[in-house]
From TrEMBL:
Organism: Desulfofundulus kuznetsovii (strain DSM 6115 / VKM B-1805 / 17)
Domain RND related barrel-sandwich hybrid residue range list: 64-165
Keywords associated with the record: Membrane, Transmembrane, Transmembrane helix
Taxonomic superkingdom: Bacteria
Transmembrane segments: 10-28
Protein name in the entry: RND related barrel-sandwich hybrid domain-containing protein
């Protein structure tokens, strides 16, 4: 009798537990469905051609001349940073502070035409066209930045700025990855397209020694004059493929792939990554075409999920 009463009590509890579990299962699936439909983004594949580039880091070599202060005193610049001045033009004046020279000023004149720059890095006499240098030795030297400005105290002989001859071009000296340097496609005198901060320039390969290369940039953006150590991309060709955001590529056992929509289901397919440019990955695959829809944010997607 007691066992029968216990069974009658347990039975309703079991039914209630099953109902709760079923409700939780239904709620979970419904929530996941809403996540998929609201958060998952599906787009058509876009085909395009992009530049294949090599990213390099190197040094700019310029025709530049330091402008030393003729005396000790307070500096007052007469031209702005980046302003082009003529030969003989007044660049700065020094309010002398030596005994007996109170109130006397000395003017600093430009010995040649060029762009005035007050970014001093200590490599002006080292990185000069024609110097036989080793990049490793220059990298160990490093830079010693100084930017003298109006109101600063300067010592006699201390640079108040420099002149950069922007008409003679700029040389770019860099180290290229070993596998690229030995590819056999580089030769002296070869024209090369380079990119700096997305801006395109034309250069000429002047010299190649092992992994080190020297390029001449005849025409370049004006603000490049103020730079010393920069990153430039060397354009080595074009590659055609489909452009997708990097997050769309999902790896399985080391194999990259993307989720495509096949028969309204999310299906992972392997792809080959050809390169990357401007925040987009270039891919190719046997089953891909411009009629293929793919998931741009597969974080919320599982294999076989139903997607419209």
């Amino acid at each position: 009798m007691i066992s029968l009463l216990r069974a009658r009590k347990i039975f309703p509890l079991s039914i209630l537990s099953l109902v709760v579990l079923f409700f939780l299962w239904w709620l979970g699936n419904r929530t996941w469905y809403l996540v998929e439909t609201r958060l998952v983004r599906v787009e058509w594949l876009e085909e395009d051609k992009v530049s294949r580039t090599i990213t390099t880091s190197g040094w700019l070599i310029k025709e530049e001349q330091l402008l030393p202060s003729p005396g000790r005193g307070q500096l007052r610049l007469l031209v702005s940073d980046g302003q082009r001045v003529r030969a003989g033009g007044a660049v700065a004046e020094i309010l002398l502070a030596d005994n007996g020279n109170d109130g006397r000023k000395i003017v600093v004149y430009a010995p040649r035409g060029g762009v005035f720059c007050n970014h001093i890095d200590g490599l002006e006499k080292v990185l000069r066209p024609g110097n036989a240098l080793e990049m490793e030795a220059v990298e160990k030297l490093g830079t010693k930045s100084a930017s003298p400005g109006t109101g600063n105290r300067v010592e006699k002989g201390e640079p108040v700025g420099k002149l950069v001859d922007n008409l003679s071009g700029i040389w770019y000296w860099c180290r290229v990855p070993r596998e690229e340097a030995g590819a056999g496609r580089w030769s002296s005198g070869q024209p090369v397209v380079v990119l700096w901060q997305g801006r395109q320039m034309r250069a000429r390969l002047e010299k190649i020694t092992g992994e080190e290369m020297l390029f001449l940039l005849s025409v370049y953006p004006g603000d490049l004059v103020h730079q010393r150590q920069v990153q430039l991309e060397l354009v080595t060709g074009e590659v055609a493929g489909f452009l997708v955001p990097p997050r769309a590529v999902v790896e399985r056992d080391g194999q990259p792939g993307i989720y495509v929509i096949s028969r309204r289901r999310a299906t992972w397919v392997p792809v080959q990554v050809l390169g990357e440019t401007s925040g987009r990955v270039v891919i190719s695959g046997q089953s891909l075409s411009t009629r293929t829809r793919y998931v741009t944010n597969p974080f919320w997607v599982r294999e076989g999920d139903r997607l419209e």
